[in-house]
Amino acid sequence: MKLFYLFFYILLINIGFIKSQFILTDITPNNKLISYPQYPSQSICGGEHYILVNNSTQQSNINQIIPPSFFITSSGDFTLYNHYEILNIGETKNIIFTINDNNQTNGYLNVSYICKEVDVSLVTIDIIQEVTWSDNFKYSSIVRLNVPDESTMPECEFATINKMGNSQYRILYSEVYYLNIAPNSSIWEIDLKYTSNQVLKVSVPVKLSNPIISITDIEEYKWTDLEFHALYGGGIVFTSNSSIQRPIYSFLTVTSPYYFTPKPMSGVKGKIKYYLSPMPFIMGGQNFTFYSQKEDNSFKNDFISTFDFQVKTTSPLGPSTVFHDNTTTSNFITVKFNGYSRYNFKTLTCKFKKMFDPGFNYGFPFGFINGNNDNNQMSISTPITPKSSQASFSWNCDDSYVQVDQSVYEIVKASQGKITSVERINIFQFLFLVVFKAEDDVGVKYIDGIVDNFYLRFGSQNLVSGNNLNGIWEHVHDGANLGTDTQNSFSLTNELDLSMTYPSTWPFSVTNPDQTMFLPGIQLNNTVNYYKDIKDISFLFNNVHVTNQSVDNIMYFTFDNIENYKNLAIGFSLTDPKSLKDSRIQIDINLKYNPNYNFAKWDESNSRFSVMFKMPANTVPGVLDWTLTFAKYNTLINTALPDNYQLNIISENIDIVGPVVTKIVKKSQSDFGTPNVGWLLTIEDEINGLLNGYITVKGGLDSSVYNFSISPSTAVRGSGDKWKADYLISIPLQDTLNNYGCIAQDYYIVNANLGDTFGNVNNYMAILEQQTQVSPLGLLSVVNPFYLLPYESLTLSVDNTTCSTALDTSPPTLISFTASKTTIDVGSQDRSITFNFKAQDLESGLKNNQSPVIYLIDENLASVECISTIVSRTDTDAEYSCTVEVPAGFGHPLGFTVSVYGFINNGGYYSGFSSDLLKSMGSDAWFITIDQFSMDIPIIKSSTGITNQGGDILLQGRGFSSVDTINIVYFDAPLESQSIKGNKYNSALLITGIKPTNQSFTIQLLNSLQPTKKSNTLTITPELYFFNYTDPVPTQPPTQPPTQPPTKSPIPTNPPQKCLGNPECGGENQGVCTKSGCVCISPYYGKDCSSKLLEVVPPKINGSTPSLEIPIPGDNGGSSTTTGGDPNLPSQIIYKSLISIVSLRELDFNGNPIKTIPLNTWSFKEINSNTSRYDTTVSIDGKNEKVNVTTTMQWFSKTSTVTFAGQQLTMNPSSIKFNVDITTYPFSSALNQLQLVMSATLLSTGDNSNDDICSSKSFGDTTNGDDSNFIKLQIDDHSVYGRFLKRAMVDDLVVSVDNVLLDDSMNTIESNTHAQQSYVGIIIPHYSNSVSIDPDFSILIDQNAASQSSENSICSKKSGLTKGQIAGIAIGAAGFATVIVVSIVYSVHKTKKNKKLADSISNKLGSLN
Predict the structure, then answer these.
(1) What is the C-alpha to C-alpha distance for residues 1091 and 83, in angstroms, rounded to an integer?
(2) Which residues have a Cβ under 8 Å from the Cβ of 638 and sit 6 or more positions away?
(3) Nearest to 768 by CA among 776, 778, 781
(4) Can you give the three-state secondary structure of 795-841, one letter per residue?
(5) How do residues 36-68 score in pLDDT, each as one tens digit?
(6) I need a surface site. Which of 132, 352, 899, 1274 has the fewest CB within 10 A?
(7) How far apart are CA 1268 and CA 1077, in angstroms?
(8) What is the pTM (predicted TM-score) of this model?
């Protein structure tokens, strides 16, 4: 910088050497003193210099700068100009600047403009990364060219070039290049064009793969009626028999510049199925050519396929008109459209006033006020300023637009506001806080711009201090994924719509001329060479088996020149096909790689970095690919590193796509026997199994919506399991509250989302709007779950023979519409608004289960949606309610309009009400006025993630500068309060030292001097990591099944029992009544078949004692590691099931205990991820012999059959089998027996005095034919259900054993509504050598809560009424050594009394051991 010139001239003035009253200073940065052509096609340069003028005497004004220059800004005595000159390459110009002051020339400055081109003969090339394939970059290399970063960005016909900084460039080779590469090419050469005369040849060595590739079983699934811009249509599926891990395939069409890469789906190593969904780019037929790589690394054309894309999505909007309402202080306009074509659910993109704003996407019911999809009207209201400096604006909604001009507002003159400073602070990882200070006489509306093709707007929601006349705006910016973009400008727009544009490289402040208007990015030291420096890469686990399991792992690494890296944020991400799909990364069209990162931590004591990550289950075996990202475009790929730095995985299965629909059958009224129609879908996922999903159906005439949740529990009973089952989609045609009948229309499946147990999801969307074409979701080659089926199978036609009722052309009316408030402080904690309204349709009635939507709309056409719920309904009327929290700052300062749309009658017509219609009906809730925008109230909006290892988090929100204390509440721990240390910013706050925890915790900010000034409470759920992987035990070769073991004594059978339940045995779909009692149909269980098997993720294995913690999905997502928990769950109530071996007892011939041997200390060995073993050795008083007790636990994910003691037992999904072996016991007498004592306890942390619940216990014989005993402890609808076999292996013989309750003789806890306990003794007859007991237990969910009529019940109230079914557990168990803790999350609050109860019970159980 040349600011020192300023002081130099001032010095000269003071000592009299210069008489001029104007001082001119060139403040152009050094890196801009030489100009280069902006584009290689140009032969000229655009040179810029920035001239700072100071009027030292303050007696004259600047009339003119010579030569004329562009005014940028001024402040006090200083004025800043930009002067632009066009020069030819090789030309130098000297420009003399002077000031014309009242026709007198003053001041003098001589500035040189220089235009150069890159001389390629002087350029040296350093190879940083050889040409290497990776799934995220395809073929790429990195080179260093000794040219200035400010020089012309070179072009290449056959590659995309990323400028990485420090003269480094990433070359992304295009398919046009490598699909035509010569066989066995070891060097790839491309031309980089700087100008027409300067072309640099860059030759880079290639890492050859020597592939052996063949493809078979090519299948084409073509939807004959595929709509243009549909996201998913048909697809191509083929099987690859490649011997390498990453065979390279490409699919191209000559009608577009894009090439598509097929993605692996499923299979096994050496036989992997791939899928590709071609994207439409033009209407009509498109030929796609398929290429695969040959053994010599060249490519061959395998086949050509043709897809036909038809244009069917047109804008439904016709000409529009504008209505202005200025009858109150709340000005707004309403734009009305008449539809002229059929509406087919297409999303509409609307925007107002901004040319480059991408707008906001809206679907039905937004805007629709009358009609049906064949003929409708739309009306949208939005606030507007009463004055503007602009002559007119365009109000756009899809292809329809209208000019808004001075007929609805007053045109006035306005002065430009200005940005006075920009501060950029790297606050956490890749994140920067950007602080804008700006001022404007009429108020700043927003600051906006485009960074890397991503539109950013900083408006009232970013205003954190002062006001819009003179305030501070803050934005948290991603410095790696978005980074710095010096090609685009930012603008400040004021409330009169006058904009001031700031090119990103221009200085804009005379007081801080170093500042320019660009957003920050991570800047690396020019000595950083991570490919050269990285070393000592290792992993906690390598050669990892990921078959049917996700494994937590840690990567370790360090660098030479370590001081260059210690303080860097380094982002790790996996880039295997599954992880790329999960991260929505698709580089076929979008060449950016922006994943979610896990950040490495520097370990000073070991001088290395470490980063935790989760290895996906059932992904492609071989090397698990990963990257390290240091800055924008600065990403290290593992495939460019040596073999000894690779992470190897073994997987017997490959399944990285979600479930698919393999069969669909349309169902009519005759199939249902009721006025319903629908589909019967068969959904399959043969490896991972279905977890959940949803399907959405819409009415083709009235846009009615029907949402269906999909999970194994909603499958047609008896049709299968999570791997394959049938699901019924049922649409009611008639309303049960009136007799209007039904109307003829088509029903369409428009959306589907099906996920499996390891997070793979398949999606389907009937319509892809034009705007989504550039979104990551729209460009993914994802699997359409319906790809196996014809397109027409997703449409169900209901004609006049089924529904002959005439249309009701009188749409629903709105009777009343109220809001809990019509003025709001959008900076306060209380920003919730409740709307209550009533609608009516006297002719056909309002359609059931349709939810009108309220839209709060600001001037920019952004909105906040509130989906209503039905409060009550009659045959003609319906009352609705919804509550919405307005985002902080939303709508400031104008306020926002209120509209409600989506009332549908039974006669095929809908209605809605924009603000003008609400106002005309007399409602005062048509507009929400902002009466205040508080700046000092703390509001936490979000936080960065954290793991159960603890660490740091960044809170984002507003008002943080007003707080000084943070309160943290960890699970089952007292509140911790600590002072906030370090830098505080208004919208971002770094919290350090979060403790390790496996449970959710809460954070609240407050001001210790103003206790009422406190933030909302944010619940944070850590990501759980458990590093307990062990290699699986090799599978033994199959052996002949053993012969039936001999039986020492007859094995008892359970006596006949009465069938229980209402209906009996749960009904014909749940159980069958036999003479032995109810025999349940899987997945139902229990004496009355009212319990149901529940599938959960495998429990975490305890490495010290034979215990395990089983996460059970609760009402809000629970703690299931498969589904993830809800970070906003309220306080938790905890249910604990404690099942443990208490002791061995020797009994005399009368059954009285004579010796008790506690079982406390165990040694642990993990056999594999599903099997663990625990051993203990105990001494017997008065005896020299010692007794060994071994417990082996095995987890089952699928239904399996095992044999024990000559009896076949079915192991249910999510069940655990325990094998307990006891060696020789030194009995005191040959008449004595041995007893294994177990304790089963169920408790909760609820409040006895307040909760209307019951608990109970029962013991008896099972009825399903396994001739066992059961014990059931129940609190509310959560149970411990234990099965105790009546047989054991004793001295290699099948022997009968007895199971008895010991509650009367043992020291049980005091049972109440929240605690139940029983002791069970398994009596083993006298033996000589060994005993083997082989029980199991499964996870169940009860349909009926415990009540006053339950056996041995204790209730908090006499009513004993059961509650609605809630997600719960019932754990069955028998002779094993374990403690099980089951936690279920509910939206209720804990109390101190609850905690004391839980502590006392836990302590008491501990003392028994």
Answers:
(1) 81
(2) 134, 575, 623, 625, 626, 627, 645, 646, 647
(3) 778
(4) EEEECCCCCCCCCCCCCCEEEEEEECCCEEECCCCCCEEEEEEEEEC
(5) 999 999 999 999 999 999 887 655 566 688 999
(6) 132
(7) 13
(8) 0.74
